[in-house]
Amino acid sequence: MKKAVVLLALIGLTNFAQAQNKNIVSAINYLGYYIKDKNVSDISEAKKYIDLATEHEETKTKAKMWMNRAQIYQAISDSKDEQVKALSANPLEEAAKAYQMTLKYDDKKSYPEASGNLMYCANSFLNTGVVFFNDKNYGKAVEYFEKSIAINKESFNKIDSNSIFNAALASDRGNMTEKAK
User: Which tens digits make up the pLDDT trace of 137-172?
Assistant: First the structure.
């Protein structure tokens, strides 16, 4: 009797782990469909499944899950479709965090492109900061320049002097004297 209970428990745990891996596979498939057809419902489903995978102990420390989350959120961020953009309040931030998590959990170095994609996110933050600066929205400009600075410092151990200069200039123009210093 005890062997039967233990066997059923092991089967249950195996099925639970497989269900979470299926969420990752479903997310990957829906992202592929979206890339091919640009159907909003496909990217919405991809986001739904990858968000489910993010919440579970079985998958939240897997580089594969984080890499696919990053790609899904980057696709949302890069989209020109307002319906797609509406799926996430801060898709570029989510993508950047997911690329950072990919690098953290990628012990086997299976995702070397994560580093370049994270740099893409940092550059996108810098470019967005420039857009806000040109629109004279200096507070937002500083916010985006600081995101670029943080990624470069935390993930690449680099000093992003361009973003630092731009943040100081935007702070000065926005009368944020202490921040400018």
Answer: 999 999 999 999 999 999 999 999 999 999 999 999
Count CB neighbours of 109 within 10 A.
9
Task: Bin 55: left if φ > 0, else alpha if -120 < ψ < 50, else beta.
Answer: alpha
Place of tokens 């745990």: 13
59-77 burial, b at 16+ Cβ within 10 Å, e below that, comes to beebbbbbbbbbbbbbbbb
Burial class (CB in 10 A: 0-12, 13-18, 19+), 85: middle
Of the candidates 141, 147, 146, 138, the residue with the CA atom closest to the CA atom of residue 128: 141
Residues near 108 by beta carbon (within 8 Å), at least 6 away in sequence: 63
Query: Which pTM does this prediction carry?
Result: 0.84
